[in-house]
Amino acid sequence: MVLEKYEKVVKHTLHPAKITMAIVKDKNDKFNAITLEWFMRTSIEPPMFAISIAHSRYSYECLQNFRYFNLCFPSPELVEMTKVSGSKSGRDIDKFAECEVDYFPGKLAKLPIIKNAAATFECKIISQVKSGDHTIFAGEVKHAWYDTERRVITYKDLT
Ligand SMILES: Cc1cc2nc3c(=O)[nH]c(=O)nc-3n(C[C@H](O)[C@H](O)[C@H](O)COP(=O)(O)O)c2cc1C
């Protein structure tokens, strides 16, 4: 064991990492997707997921306004969308139009359920807490969808 700078030590712990996308909606009813590595399950009963979103993201604005998100676990077929959603901003583009993915409206808030995702959890925001330059949004899972034929991707699939 050696004592080192935070940045160096945290890099050593990063992988393997699961990747997800939060699907949100802006105030003009445009859907947006943001790629996330910082998410976790936080409750069994009720089932809950938390996502950590930087204040600079367009998705942060969306979540302040519309208090629902779909947590979409991409399959290998959605690698391209996951890359676009993690590198471009919904302020500048319509990610759903650019990526041409098929989806249908969810049961909770009509946010998109992407057809070839491995799984999607429809969540309602219950609480939020500021965490440095991010805010953690905790969402209660209201509906869960999956496709047994499709696997979830990890960070490695994006490289
Ligand atoms: C692999 C990967 C993981 C990411 N994880 C997070 C994250 O957990 N939280 C976050 O705020 N941004 C994260 N980002 C950055 C956002 O996805 C990126 O800034 C995105 O373009 C923001 O889109 P928006 O402005 O439309 O919200 C990640 C990006 C990548 C490629």
Can you walk me through this structure?
With 159 residues, the protein is α+β, with helices and mostly antiparallel strands. The protein has one domain: Electron Transport, Fmn-binding Protein, Chain A (Pnp Oxidase, Chain A, Roll). The chain is built from four helices and nine strands. The chain has helices spanning 6-13, 58-65, 79-85, 95-99, and strands spanning 20-25, 31-36, 39-43, 48-54, 68-73, 103-105, 112-114, 119-131, 134-146. Strands 2-1-5-8-9-4-3 form a seven-stranded antiparallel sheet. A hairpin with a 6-residue loop joins strand 6 and strand 7. The protein is globular. The relative contact order is 0.23. The model has no long low-confidence stretch (mean pLDDT 97). The structure holds flavin mononucleotide. Flavin mononucleotide (FMN) binds at residues 19, 32, 34-38, 52-54, 57-59, 86-91, 155, 158.
N→C terminal distance: 29 Å
Order of strands across the main sheet: 2-1-5-8-9-4-3
Residue runs with pLDDT of under 50 for 5 or more positions: none
In angstroms, what is the radius of gyration? 16 Å
Just give the CATH class: Mainly Beta
Q: Total helix count?
A: 4
Strand content: 35-45%
Distinct small-molecule ligands in the complex: flavin mononucleotide
Helical/strand content category: alpha+beta
CATH topology grouping: Pnp Oxidase, Chain A
